Amino acid sequence: MRLFWEAIKGLGITGKHLIVNLWKFSLYYVGLSRDKGVVTIEYPEERRETFPRVRLRHRLLRREDGRVRCVACFMCATACPSQCIYIEAEEDPEHPLEKRPKQFLIDLGKCAYCGFCVEACPEDALRMDVHIPELAEYERENLIYDIEKLTKE
Amino acid sequence: MVWVVIKVVVIFTWALVTVLYITLLERKESALIQDRIGANRAEVLGLRLNGLFQPFADALKMFFKEDYTPPFVDRPFYLAAPLLALIFALVPVGAIPVADSLNLGGKEFSLSVIGSNVGVVLVLSLLSLGIYGVILGGYGSKNKYGLVGGMRATAQVISYEVALGLSLVGVLLVFPSLNLNEIVHMQNRYVLGGWVPLWGIILQPLAAALFLIAGMAENKRVPFDLPEGESEIIGYFLEYSGMKFGMFFVADFVEVLLLAGLFTTFFLGGYNPPYLFQDGFHFPWGGTWLLSPVWIRLIQFITFNIKLWIMVWFLLLIRWTYPRYRFDQLMDLGWKSLIPLSIFNIIITSGVMAVIK
Question: B167 and which of A111, A139, B210, B293 could share a cystine (Cβ 3.0–4.6 Å)?
Fold first, then answer.
């Protein structure tokens, strides 16, 4: 008899979830309420908010005059534990005595997203604050990002 | 003849569309119970309507899936099993009265496909034949897990058949007819100043509970899904794919519809809403609202659907609340609780009926 009562209580619990969620979601669906009631995040349309300190894809910053901040000092490439950064330096023809990267490649397929390169950068040229987690590609080559791709917001 | 064809087409289309939407209700209801949303991506012409077209997408997918027949199966049995399961689930649906019979030019036209005088017996016998699909599916696929599933289903359905039949005996004592339509008619009486309808669930509450439990066990769904046993033996349809599996799947849901329809017919006053009589509504507070026979049939059909969906909703709530029984617990429940209780119910009911007579 006690078990019978427990069974009825179980029906009550699931029934309560059903009714409450139905009510809340119906209000949300017709636009009367902001509270969805359910925990589902409908991914392509809705995203979970990323945390401010999350480490995702790299971004190269530019100076005010539009030049890349990077001075090709190789600090990031040295700090990188997975050796995924490849830099080729050259002299800046317009500003003598200044170096600039001729080529700056990051292989995101190798990258471990540890953030050491960001820590190492003396010029604050490299950050990992692009809050886009999608990096899927059909070709491995597409995951090697050059200056063009890295400076794009 | 034309009339029969129209009835068959209309009733079975209605049944299959209802079954499709039962699958949608199952997905949506389980989702909401578990704090999810459920399928809502199916889109027709840019209209989503929160998944209202999902069942049709599912059905289409089922048709176009690869239908693979393993080389080692016993072909005749293997091919016959899903058909048998589906047919023996669908045919009894035709016996359920969805509206009162229509009187056209002095002749009675039954609105259910099988307007039989022995509807109860017919439904019970077809229900027990439905097990052949399951056994043959398990046996014909020559798979040990499938066979175990089939044997479990046999044991389960045979033991619960007894309780199912015996629980209906009480109902048949109170409403002395084997015609389902007649049983519905006899429930349309009122007591206590005409307020309370004498539905089966009020006269036979114990039989209603027993019928519901035994019916769910016949249904082979959670909490009685040992023949399937998804987590350990997959069950009797292990070797089936594509539309053959789809037929087993649909048969499952047709049985849900059948159980809900039978429960409505036997215990919830069938297609009659409260206070509806042959010529219209007669309310206990004195009002009357006379209607033409066709309107009454329409109201009855809608009422039947509403009651049916409430029952389906309740069955699905049970299905998504309880975990599965162990096999010995299942047998204990069937033989040691349900059958003695239904015999007790028969004795009490016949005693009371004898005293009243």
Answer: B210
